[in-house]
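It is worth pausing here to work through a concrete case rather than discussing structure prediction in the abstract. The textbook approach is simple: state the sequence, then state the predicted structure, then interpret. We follow exactly that order.
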Amino acid sequence: MLFAVRLPGMTGTREWVYPQSIDGFFMRLRRGAFLLLHVLLFVAPWLTMRGHPLLQIDLPARRVFLFGAIFTPSDTIFFALLLFFLAFALFFFTTIFGRVWCGYACPQTVFIDRVYRRIERWIEGDHIQRIRLSRAPWTWDKMAQTIADVYRDCLTAEDDHQRSADKETPHKEMSKACVQAQKQ
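Step two, the predicted structure:
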C-alpha cells in the first residue's frame, strides 16, 4: 500500500518562484565576481604559461593544461589527488563561509544569473510582471511570450547540443527535438 506524508503547510500544488531583481553593495560585489569568472573562463584558454594554455581541457588528445602543467592519462593519480583536495577545500570553505561558493563563484549560478535570467527579464519583464502573466488568462500576448520562452529554451538546448554533441546529457533528446524543429 502506498502512502504519502503530508507536512504542515504543504498543499500538494506547485508554487512557482519568480526571482526579483535587487541591487546593493553585495550584488555589485557579486557582479564583479561574475565578471572576473567570465573573463577567467573565456580568456584563460588563450593565455599561455610556459608555452601552454593557462586552462584547457583537450578531450581528443586526452590532455588537461592547467597553469602551464600538462596532465595526461598517466598522471591520473596526481590529477585525482588534486581534484580530491579541491573538493575537500570546496566542502570545507563552504561549511565555514556558508553560501559564498553558491552565491559568488559557482559556474552554474554565474551563467544562469548573468545570461539566462537577463534574457528571461527581457522577454517576460520583472518578477511582478511574470506573476501577473502567469495568473492572467490566455491572450495573444501571453501566447507570444510563452512561444518566446520555448524558443529561448530551444536555442539554449541547441547551444548545449553543439557543445556536447559527443557526450550524453540529460536534455539531449529535447535538444535534438528542438534542433530538428528549427530545421523544418
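Step three, interpretation. The chain has seven helices and five strands. Residues 140-163 form the longest helix (24 residues).
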